[in-house]
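Sample 3 of the quickstart, ligand pyridoxal-5'-phosphate:
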Amino acid sequence: MQVNFSGRALRYTEEEIQVVVEAMRTADPLTQGRFQNAFQEGFCAFNGAAHAFAMMNGTAALEVAAQLCFFKEGDEVIIPSHTFTSSAYPFARYGTKLVWADIDPATRVITAESIAPLITPRTKLIIVVHLYGYVADMPAIMALAQKHGILVLEDACQAIGAELDGVKAGNFGDFGVFSFHSHKNLTTLGEGGMLTVKDERYAALIPMLRHNGHRAFPAGPEGRPDYWIPAMGDVDFPELDGQRLWPNNYCIGEVECALGLKQLERVERINAEKRTRALAFIDALHDYPELEFHRVDSLRHNYHLLPARMRGTALRRDDFIRRMFYEYGVKCVVQYCPLNRYPLYQKLGFGKANCPNGDDFYDHMISFPFQHCLTPEEFEHMLASTRAVLDAQRSGKAHGQ
Ligand SMILES: Cc1ncc(COP(=O)(O)O)c(C=O)c1O
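Result:
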């Protein structure tokens, strides 16, 4: 049996497929229409956000959030080194300094304690990534940020529906960003994203930032002679307090929005099913302390992914992954190379980080295949294979023996 680290998270239900078919038949226009409005409203109702804007992916939402920060050269952005690249690069294009924060080794997310020593008078933004689907300690981080007057962005791309103290991920900070990419617990046909904001002034600018600087003509005292005069719609720079932003086209299609709205009905069930499965896997391996999981039996973790740290050397971790794949057909992977190790960040001068926990975790981590559509047979095979490989490692049997 093969267990792939699948490129897709879910199988769509027949009802979801019907919603797509119906939207294909009826949507007019096919972008920027009633399904987008309904998805945004549905997302606010689901998540508790004040304002939500659907976009073509999470990275586009991050790009727009970065624009709204109105960075000046030399502003500093605190961000975990252990995250996906698009948590970071949209913020680096403005000449900002990326300041790498370390993760807590147990929870694998940054904390108020790891952030506090990095704050300077130039700190403009803290980016908190709820990596793997676990909500960081936002009350403590918000208290710290508010004390210093710093903006907070939650990269909740992996954490849809996860919550802390009854507040859903993305709802603590100034900005919340979500991804509906193929791997995610809610996915709008492979690409999709959402930006949530609290501030009305940001909310007023986002439609223009998303859609080419388009806006309706202001209703003048005389009105317009005809709907096409002087043009169908107006085009301008989105502006805040005299500061200009360049517009983009980051729109998402109507069919994706129709599907996203429908999937909001199911995402909490998907999260619960993944959590139940994660806990079953972790508990079944209780007698194997060489694998260190993050066990969270609450809504705070949606188990988008199922990572573990392997005790011992990095070579032992690689041996584990090799055996799982070549002997049992189970494809584990290694995720989230500390960003300071990539050429892109090194070329920007951000190649050094004081993040020993993030480095250690990456060098010892194993991410198990954990797509929602894993079958019970695949799950059992993965569990049995994990036990078998750990037993073989304990007995000192070499790979292939
Ligand atoms: C933590 C994190 N941030 C940002 C992104 C970017 O989202 P997208 O792929 O929708 O652009 C992703 C996912 O891909 C992610 O996992």
